Amino acid sequence: MPTIIDGKELAKKIRANLKIECEELNTKGIKAKLAVIMVGEDQASKVYVRNKSKACDDVGIEYEEYLLDENITQKDLINLINKLNKEKTINGILLQSPIPANLDINEAFRTIIPEKDVDGFNPVNVGRLVLDQDTFVSCTPFGIMKMFDEYKIDLSGKNVVILGRSNIVGKPLIHCCLNRNATVTVCHSKTQNIKQITQNADVLISAVGKAHFVSADMIKDNSIIIDVGINRLENGKITGDVDFENVKDKVEFITPVPGGVGPMTIAMLMNNLIKATKRQNGMID
To answer: What is the pLDDT of residues 180-202, one digit of tens each?
Structure first.
């Protein structure tokens, strides 16, 4: 029988510990505060932002939201970020993606100062990850690493295959896994013979955003499957990239969707925000 990696329960435990840390900060007169910027009316983004707000409330983190019109100029977006950079009561800044195509999201990420970059997208923090230095790691890859820790999954020497090379998940994951001495292969839309590659994976992490893309014949027995995908079917059901029902009996560990990686992403955002708050108040180096 496979072990189902319960991200929801692990995230609950992490958030409970963070709540205690937040209360300890409060006794010192320190209020942890997150600013979230959302541009436009993307419906999925609205759901994600609402979930982040609820998580902040649960942990005890103060939350400030900036809902911007989709026609905002790049200059006005950058000016807002710079204003939040200077605001001492703001400990972390998150720009919800995607943003309208006429805006340069990379410039926006560069503008968020590394000390408040709780999403880990500023090039300085990305560079620190590459060099295996202490940094803010992008929340979804960070959450996956925490899952490996919780379930005592050692990546050293394992063949890890990552499906997807996005800046948000795939690319940071490469370095997270390399930093744990894994042998990493990345597959993307131009990769040939994907099935041949995935069949040799000790650990397969899928972040392609295609429902049931990973089938049972693509994996080897007793492998570890991490499903990052969140896809909505025509009947409204949420499912992952992995054909869970047909895959689960072949593997040693697998994450479900929902209830796997998703809750961990938000928990790691809370973790990064508390870390940023402590660092800005001289409590950690």
So the answer is: 999 999 999 999 999 999 999 99
* Mean pLDDT, rounded, for 198-220: 97
Q: What is the per-residue pLDDT across 153-162, written as a single tens digit (0 to 9) for each?
A: 999 999 999 9
Question: Cα–Cα distance between 285 and 265 in angstroms, integer?
Answer: 24
Lateral strand order in the sheet of 3-4: 3-4, 253-254, 224-227, 203-206, 159-163, 183-187
Please tell me which residue in 33, 52, 158, 171 is annotated as part of the active site: 52
Mean per-residue pLDDT over the chain, rounded = 96
Known active-site residue 119: yes
Q: How confident is the model at residue 284 (pLDDT cuts 50, 70, 90)?
A: confident
Q: How far apart are CA 219 and CA 236, in angstroms?
A: 27
Catalytic residue selected from 6, 33, 96, 116:
96
**Closest CA relative to residue 77, chosen from 37, 35, 110, 46:** 37
Strand pairing partners for 168? none
The CA distance from 30 to 109, in Å, is 26
Q: Give the predicted TM-score (pTM) of the model.
A: 0.96
Catalytic-residue membership of 192? no
Q: Kindly tell me the number of DSSP H helices and DSSP E strands found in the chain.
A: 10, 11
Residue 235, number of CB atoms within 10 A of its CB: 6
Token representation of residue 218: 């693509």
Active-site residue flag, 149:
no
Q: From the candidates 6, 33, 116, 119, which is the catalytic residue? A: 119
Sign of the CA dihedral 105, 108, 113, 117? negative
The pLDDT of residue 74 is above 90: yes
Q: Which long-range contacts (CB under 8 A, 24 or more apart) does 124-133 make?
A: 126/172, 129/172, 129/175, 129/176, 129/179, 130/175, 132/175, 132/179
